[in-house]
Design a protein that fits this description.
single chain, alpha/beta, TIM Barrel, 2 domains, 6-stranded parallel beta sheet, 17 helices
Length: 347
């Protein structure tokens, strides 16, 4: 880690702790323009989703503590209703919780937690796991990698790969993060899908069983819907939209929305870009979201959203096992927004 990055982390931590423990966050919240903070997670931690890793999970006690703290000071709503409220006159800022992909713990762990707090949330769903019991390639990749190990995985992948650029990049990597990054951004999509699926099956993988272990079923999704959870679209197969041809990206968006509306029997208005960094979706994909009749789309760049925010590029703050409440509070009260205005981005 560079000295510059270490300094940034130190300043971020010190600033957030100062705002939180001094109570200055409450004053700053009143002084800054009204805003919406959208929290973005994936899983409430359970033994069944342990393999997804710390960046995908948050413990139930910590999530409940975070939501309870915000519920006493902010209006906590789903993304869709929060945006409607933000467009109306008012002084109180808002917080929304969102969860991506549609994992089973969203029903077994998150729903009871929200019921205890009398809150709701937005869950963005991939449609392939629901309609076809098919998981996106990353789950087969990590399942196989855990059993084979990086060296064996790379050796087996290279034996099947024809793309020379991918072969060169993979041969130099051994960490799971870097391997995933190469496959995610550099490998030809069709070749990657074919090889990862071959390696998964050769290692004894059962895609239906893995999907049943990780993902919600339609019955569970409908139960969430009846409980007042907002359900949004998250593409069919969780592919990076910027790597697809515009027609294919638009189909991923349109078909996922249509699938959810068939399964739920009512319109779906919210969308989240897979992976969600600015390089993961394109202007064409953003326009396809708008053209499909969806009312909003979220990314994963940090920050809050004011009344004039672009509804098709809403910022979110990620939460996981390393999340700390004082950092979320510094964001929610407008503390980091204030620094951004002054030219210092500590996100």
């Amino acid at each position: 880690m560079s000295a510059k990055h270490q300094l940034k982390l130190f300043l971020r931590e010190a600033y957030a702790r100062c705002l939180f423990h001094s109570g200055a966050h409450a004053l700053l919240d009143r002084l800054m323009p009204r805003r919406l903070l959208i929290l973005a997670g994936h899983c409430v931690a359970t033994p069944a989703n342990a393999a997804l890793g710390p960046q995908m999970r948050i413990g139930a006690p910590e999530l409940e503590r975070i939501l309870a703290w915000f519920a006493k000071r902010y209006e906590v709503l789903e993304v869709g209703r929060a945006l409607e409220r933000l467009a109306q006159p008012g002084k109180q800022s808002l917080v929304a919780l969102s969860m991506d992909d549609g994992y089973k713990d969203n029903r077994t762990e998150l729903l009871p937690l929200l019921a205890r707090l009398r809150l709701s949330a937005t869950i963005y769903l991939e449609s392939a796991p629901l309609d076809e019991r098919r998981v996106n390639w990353t789950h087969k990749f990590f399942w196989t990698l855990e059993r084979a190990g990086p060296e064996t995985f790379v050796e087996a992948y290279l034996a099947r790969a024809k793309d020379e650029r991918t072969r060169t990049l993979l041969a130099a990597q051994r960490s799971s993060y870097q391997l995933k990054r190469v496959l995610k951004y550099e490998a030809p999509l069709a070749e990657r899908m074919r090889i990862v699926d071959e390696l998964f099956r050769a290692a004894g993988g059962d895609e239906r069983a893995l999907c049943d272990q990780l993902y919600l079923s339609w019955d569970e999704v409908r139960e969430l819907d009846r409980a007042g959870i907002e359900l949004g679209a998250h593409t069919v197969s969780h592919e990076i939209l910027a790597r697809l041809e515009p027609v294919a990206a638009a189909r991923e968006i349109r078909d996922s929305k249509a699938s959810l509306e068939r399964g739920l029997g009512h319109p779906v208005r919210s969308f989240a870009y897979p992976f969600g960094r600015r390089w993961d979706y394109s202007p064409a994909a953003k326009e396809a979201v708008r053209a499909s009749g969806l009312a909003s789309a979220t990314c994963t760049h940090a920050g809050t959203n004011g009344a004039a925010a672009d509804r098709f590029e809403l910022k979110r703050v990620m939460i996981d096992e390393e999340t700390r409440l004082h950092l979320l509070v510094a964001e929610a009260c407008g503390g980091f927004d204030l620094l951004r205005r002054l030219g210092l981005d500590l996100a």
